[in-house]
Amino acid sequence: MTRFERLLLAILIAGAVLVGVNVIPAAGRWNATWKTYTDFGLALTTVRTDAGRTQLTVGLQLINLSSEPVHLIDLESQTSLNGETISGGGLRPENLVLSPGSRRIVTLVEPIYNTTQPALIAGLANRSRSWDVSGTIEIAIGGQSQTATVPFSGTLNQHGGG
């Protein structure tokens, strides 16, 4: 083996070691992010209209079952009543952090779309109501360097009187 070939081989080995040193921690961080993403949950708790039927108040419970703190960055939602989309809104909190193992209820106030007033009135008159809330939530994991966008969907069925 010539001196040039040995030098080239040494450079290749050093490059492989450097790549390996960087890939292993990166894969570990990705795995931790994925675990936190899968351990994050969201549940629809309440849907209420105001007296003037101009807005909805939607309660969502955020659940962090991971071992990492989760920062809520952005939440966008859309609400349907008996299959008709009637409102939408969002939440961008300043500093909402869910510590490991914690749960927190956040409240969204969504304006009711003017064009959906008839669907809202008909839906509220129905004894059985099915509220569907769907959207996305953007979270930052750990030290906020890694973010994930989590789609969600939930249904709350109400039965009974007006």
Sequence-ordered SSE layout with sheet pairings:
Layout: H1 3-38, E1 40-49, E2 55-64, E3 70-81, E4 84-91, E5 96-98, E6 103-111, H2 117-125, E7 128-141, E8 146-159
Antiparallel strand pairs: 1-2, 2-6, 3-4, 3-5, 3-7, 7-8
Q: Any idea what the CATH architecture of the largest domain is?
A: Sandwich
β-sheet strand percentage: over 45%
How many domains? The number is 2
Terminus-to-terminus distance: 89 Å
Account of the protein in words:
The protein is built from 2 helices and 8 strands. It has 162 residues and is an alpha+beta fold. The protein folds into 2 domains: 38 residues; 118 residues, Immunoglobulin-like, CATH 2.60.40. The strands form 2 sheets. Strands 3, 4, 5, 7 and 8 form a 5-stranded antiparallel β-sheet that branches. Strands 1-2-6 form a 3-stranded antiparallel β-sheet. A hairpin with a 4-residue loop joins strand 7 and strand 8. It is elongated, with a radius of gyration of 24 Å. The mean pLDDT is 81.
Q: What distinguishing features does this structure have?
A:
three-stranded antiparallel beta sheet; alpha+beta; 2 helices; five-stranded antiparallel beta sheet; 162 residues; Immunoglobulin-like; 2 domains
